[in-house]
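Hi V.,

You were right to ask for the full record rather than a summary. Here it is.
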Amino acid sequence: MVVERGQKIGLVGHNGAGKSTLLKLLAGVEPVTSGAVRIGSNVNSAYYAQHQLEILDPNETVFESIQKVSPGWSENEMRTYLGSFMFSGDEIEKYVKVLSGGEKARVALARMLVKPSHLLLLDEPTNHLDMVTRNVVERALIQFSGSIVCISHDRHFLNNVTNLTCEVGDGGIRLFEGNYEYYEWKKQVEKSAESPKPKIKSELKGKSDYKEQKKVRNRLSWIKKRFTIIENELKNQRSITQDPANGDDYELLQKAMETMTILESKYLKLMEEQESLNAK
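Predicted structure:
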């Protein structure tokens, strides 16, 4: 596996396939037992996983936590940078120990992106985040000019951030030249080409199995259509929150954010159902 400049790779595969292990090997968190990991000369990498939240000093303020890793920055530069992660005004003086899980994740990611790393290694960067925080993280990673290797169960995140998909499983990897949506389409095309034409079965069990499979296929098809509908609605609501003309309309913005949270919840539940149906 070779990670080149500008590539943003999403690691996919069933649970236990080795995605997290591969990411830890790339990060140097786990020792290599076979083969080798070679990082290019002068290439800096940064690793993010849920345990990063525990590394934050609970007795520091948000401002102090970022200040520690950004020597030479003026206070104005600090405030502007924190503002891009939705910390403004008195919020930057809040202590880490009183922050919510989503706020801590924003601080941890902000700290990581302060330093000019060339390669980001991310393990579920949007896990347990609210919709607003997900958008902040997603936007920051889209704008990131380096390379990314990430694991995420968030299909929407993978479609927007990644440009390559790496399937991990059966002791190896396979690269697909596109985001998660492309990967899913490619796998479906391959599956259709490989599947033999169904034989007519007279046995009752055979008919029962066929009906069940048809039921699953129909449900999966419906879920894909729902994904498209929800993604389009999320784009509409996001455009409302990002429109400067709505900056003072608190009620409109609040309603849009609440709608996005509901849509995101529906999206994640459908993802879980899709994963369960695909495993059958």
